[in-house]
Amino acid sequence: MSRAWRIEYAGALYHVLSRGNERRDIFTEDDDRLLFLDTLGEISDRFAVDICAYVLMSNHYHLLLRTRRANLSKAMQWLGVTYTNRFNPRHGRSGHLFQGRFKSMLVQNDAYLLHLSYYIHRNPLRANLAKRLADYRWSSYNAYAYGKSSPEWLHTKLILSQLKNTEDPHQAYRETVQKYSKEESKLWESLRHGFIIGSRQFVKSIRAWYLPEKPHGEIPQQKSVAKTVDPVTVLRKAAKTLGCSLERFKRSGKVSAKEVQRRDMLLYLIRQLGVQTNQEIGELFGLIHSAVSRRLSLFKDALKKDAAPARSAGQRRHSGLRPSFSSAGEG
To answer: Is 141 exposed, middle or buried (0-12, 13-18, 19+ CB in 10 A)?
Structure first.
């Protein structure tokens, strides 16, 4: 079984998620949620962990946190074991409560943490657990959106400090969360190698500081980071094969229909590598973020349309080759 790559250092920021075993509930009543929050407060003190945001759902939780020491694994293991040992006797059960290892994403900086907080606070809306986020008790949303009282261990300053040039950061936070659904896809474009949220430069620094000389065979994330490629080099080689110029696309405001097809093919190629956001890709082609998203969508639609007749033709070709087991058995 593959293992997760835990990159740990003092001051690291993380988005942490853990689900119930077999996706079963880890909170069955309000007392369970209060128990979990009390346990969160304990890891804050015991392991020097700053809890920046949280949301408790029925069968999973999300946390945004900062470790003041390089101890994420120890802290989260203690949280899982301790809560399980407190939950099980209350409900007359035994055995594992959580589904395997917790999931964690390393976050580059406070700015990404701000956008992640928007995302996790909107979970109750996506799950239809509340019509208004303010009505959902089991998240840190009201502390951010309205400045409501919160546990001593909840650290809101790290995230709210990102809302500059505003007299009321709580109002600014509230208004942004309410319209953030359109921005969520843009956030996940910054997810790299499945566990790092940040820029390509941040990935390079992680690779330089933490990637072992020989990636571990049971840690696929190390292999993924080790194989990181230079997108510009890939694009230039692909453009040469297609008989077009990356520099021309960037310089010229207008391109022919034939060049548009080739450019869109290059856009799709580089997006499939998963190492650049749409905004970064746009900078290579002289396009804005929304234009890249639109062209990629059109290209994917065209691929689907082209694939449908091919599948149909393949089915017709092979239908006559299927053996007739009934006639074979009658001979």
So the answer is: buried
